[in-house]
């Protein structure tokens, strides 16, 4: 396992780099104001949005990509309820999915001596797969990481969702009260799911302190408006969230600046995919998984084939992502992955 190289502010100074600067100017298309932090041109991504979208404004974040829901992942959308009364149909797919960050009492060397405990966590998580009870990690880009900070303290990052608990929501879109009630129940289940995984970690690695718990598939209503955050966390000024990159790439804890309100207080939940899962699977034919396993401890039960679509080449580099959101966040800590569980 590799060690954390430490935080350097010049890592996300993008002056002179071939990276789009953050765009604090809104572009208006068909009456909708778009604020683009995605690194992609607006013309490239507009077709990812539904044709019947009647939004006031849309925030495009670095992890913007088409997904299973009507809205692409990595965006915040603000509606007036009077203009789009059927907005609930856009608030679907992996409701309440989110991340927890937990601080342990271990340092890098202590964790390295306890790989057997990490294997046991993997076995417990695998036993919970499709069980219908909390503690089910799921698939896709859901994961558990052990990471080390600049002082070689070990933290855990848990990213998981609501599994199939929200499968009935689409049928409730026309029944506002029933939809809202079910949505709240699914969101609570998703948080319980993360907490159950944290408890498994705690039983093997000792007491853990919750640093943050941030869902990133939610909506918020108020004063006749609705904001849907799809693959985006709510981040207020001085509030903190985590932005992961790839399986072996650094992630950061960031806090929001006073400019967050400009972005509807929405922040990316990752650096974003740069290759589709189909492209990733093809490219993985030549990926050096042996080298990856030297850098990051991965239980033997997780095969190279199972993680081919999530290999590190699939995701945007962390520093270029930070360049896109410069001015919106401050980097508080840089975290290096040292162990991974996913695709169980």
Key traits:
tRNA-splicing ligase RtcB; 344 residues; alpha+beta; DNA ligase activity; manganese; globular; RtcB; RtcB-like_sf; 15 strands; 7 helices
Question: Care to describe what's here?
Answer:
It comes from Candidatus Uhrbacteria bacterium CG_4_10_14_0_8_um_filter_58_22. Its EC number is 6.5.1.8. GMP binds at residues 244-247, 269-272. Its cofactor is Mn(2+). GO terms for molecular function: DNA ligase activity; GTP binding; manganese ion binding; RNA ligase (GTP) activity. With 344 residues, this protein is an alpha+beta fold. The chain has one domain (9-342): tRNA-splicing ligase RtcB (Alpha-Beta Complex), CATH 3.90.1860.10. The chain is 21% helix and 28% strand. It is built from seven helices and 15 strands. It has helices at 42-45, 108-112, 115-127, 176-205, 277-283, 289-295, 318-324, and strands at residues 27-29, 32-36, 57-65, 73-80, 98-107, 143-148, 153-160, 209-215, 217-222, 225-230, 232-234, 240-243, 251-256, 266-268, 329-342. The strands form three sheets. The protein has a seven-stranded antiparallel β-sheet with strand order 8-5-7-6-15-13-12. It is globular and about 60 Å long. The model is unreliable at 7-21 (pLDDT under 50).
Briefly summarize what is shown.
With 344 residues, the protein is an alpha+beta fold. The protein has helices at residues 42-45, 108-112, 115-127, 176-205, 277-283, 289-295, 318-324, and strands at residues 27-29, 32-36, 57-65, 73-80, 98-107, 143-148, 153-160, 209-215, 217-222, 225-230, 232-234, 240-243, 251-256, 266-268, 329-342. It has a single domain, classed as tRNA-splicing ligase RtcB, CATH 3.90.1860.
